[in-house]
TrEMBL record:
PROSITE patterns: ALPHA_GALACTOSIDASE
Gene that produces this protein: LOC120107651
UniProt protein name: Alpha-galactosidase
First-tier enzyme category under EC: hydrolase
EC number(s) from the headed UniProt entry: 3.2.1.22
Record carries keyword Transport: no
Keywords: Disulfide bond, Glycosidase, Hydrolase, Signal
InterPro entries registered for this protein in UniProt: Aldolase_TIM (IPR013785), GH (IPR017853), Glyco_hydro_27 (IPR002241), Glyco_hydro_27/36_CS (IPR000111), Glyco_hydro_b (IPR013780), Melibiase_C (IPR041233)
Length: 400
């Protein structure tokens, strides 16, 4: 049986179609490897969240005044743009059509009006829900089973950031819960920063970047030195997994809440910054002390956090309670934190070998807390004396 010219043309056409189809399928499965492509979180997110200071005692006036204070204190200009409402903003029950209802006694104007207000200040509004049947407070519903409805609601309100918690999940596997919300958010077409709050239970650093823009690596922080440093340690283990678009999250800042000394809060902020952690202020920014503002408003430390390279620092050397944390910055610079976790002062040495600077390199050192460039230049190592429960933070710039 012979083929006519027409048969051959048809066959060629069909085989071209099949090849094209195979390419489409390949592209499809490639894109499914990452459900999230919202272009957000190119540097770690910066903003404020209600939980650490106010827990469930929140209302729309507080949120508005916080937005005002972020602007009037200059924090907004420094990059703190997200105003994030945490748990307890909704009524216990959904409406008859299954939609979230903002709590009438505390958010009488609704969330859309609040978003408009926050946007009018040049800021962004974040909200909170849970990959379970109820949130952690158990005072409002979670989004499990309502993912698309809730994502659409958030988008229609003008929400810019969603923190998604892990309580009351009925024992369902996280892969049956979190990706649903990632997809739902993507389907809304509104770029919404997606913050996974899975507490580090199932090593979210290993899978978080496919689903979210940040992932909690720890259980909840509290306003104490022990809690803070232990979260820093747990988060450090996953340094390799942080990168632009997806960040390890050791939980929100406690700076300004009163449970630590000023030096301890400086350690807290320095380690969060160098670890490329989200910088989410957790104090009452309407009533801050000068000391608190000097910490969270330190431009040079913020610049380390927001450096475009987006590489999380590691603890490169540890001798008992004396530690060296270091990470590369753009422009061949290196950020270091020399941390003394003991209760007595001690010198700490950063060796170029440990912090990744080539031998014989001469560097200039900028002290980010004293805001001064040291006169002395350093080669191969740098030794600095550090107070108890304190740190010093430097950016080292090679001169040769
Ligand atoms: C969990 C989260 C906290 C906070 C509370 C709210 O504990 O980890 O950050 O959101 O829930 O109930």
């Amino acid at each position: 049986m012979g083929f006519s010219l027409q048969d051959i043309v048809v066959l060629l056409f069909l085989s071209a179609l099949m090849k094209a189809d195979a390419r489409v399928t390949a592209v499809d499965s490639e894109s499914k490897r990452t459900l999230l492509a919202n272009g957000l979180g190119i540097t770690p997110p910066m903003g404020w969240n209600s939980w650490n200071h106010f827990s469930c005692f929140i209302n729309e006036t507080l949120i508005r005044e916080t937005a005002d204070a972020l602007v009037s204190t200059g924090l907004a200009e420094l990059g703190y743009q997200y105003v994030n409402i945490d748990d307890c903003w909704a009524e216990q029950n959904r409406d008859s059509e299954g939609y979230f209802v903002p709590k009438k006694s505390t958010f009488p104007s609704g969330i859309k009006a609040l978003a408009e207000y926050v946007h009018s200040k040049g800021l962004k509004l974040g909200i909170y829900s849970d990959a379970g049947y109820l949130t952690c407070s158990q005072k409002m519903p979670g989004s499990l089973g309502y993912e698309q409805k809730d994502a659409d609601t958030f988008a229609s309100w003008g929400i810019d950031y969603l923190k998604y918690d892990n309580c009351n999940n009925g024992g369902l596997k996280l892969m049956e819960r979190y990706p649903r919300m990632t997809r739902a958010l993507m389907r809304t077409g509104r770029p919404i920063f997606f913050s996974l709050c899975e507490w580090g239970d199932m090593h979210p650093a290993l899978w978080g970047a496919k689903l979210g823009n940040s992932w909690r690596t720890t259980s909840d922080i509290n306003d104490s030195w022990e809690s803070m440093v232990s979260r820093a340690d747990q988060n450090e283990v996953y340094a390799e997994y942080a990168r632009p678009g997806g960040w390890n999250d050791p939980d929100m800042l406690e700076v300004g809440n009163g449970g630590m000394t000023n030096d301890e809060y400086i350690v807290h902020f320095s380690i969060w910054a160098i670890s490329k952690a989200p910088l989410l202020i957790g104090c009452d920014v309407r009533n801050m002390t000068r000391e608190t503002m000097d910490i969270i408003g330190n431009k040079e430390v913020i610049a380390v956090n927001q450096d475009p390279l987006g590489i999380q620092a590691k603890k490169v050397r540890m001798e008992g309670d004396l530690e060296v944390w270091a990470g590369p910055l753009s422009g061949y610079k290196t950020a270091i934190v020399l941390l003394n976790r003991s209760l007595k002062p001690s010198p700490i040495t950063a060796n170029w070998d440990d912090i990744g600077i080539p031998p014989k390199t001469v560097v200039e050192a900028r002290d980010l807390w004293k805001h001064e460039t040291l006169k002395k230049k350093f080669m191969d190592k740098m030794t600095v004396s550090i107070g108890p429960h304190s740190c010093r933070m430097f950016v080292l710039t090679p001169l040769s």
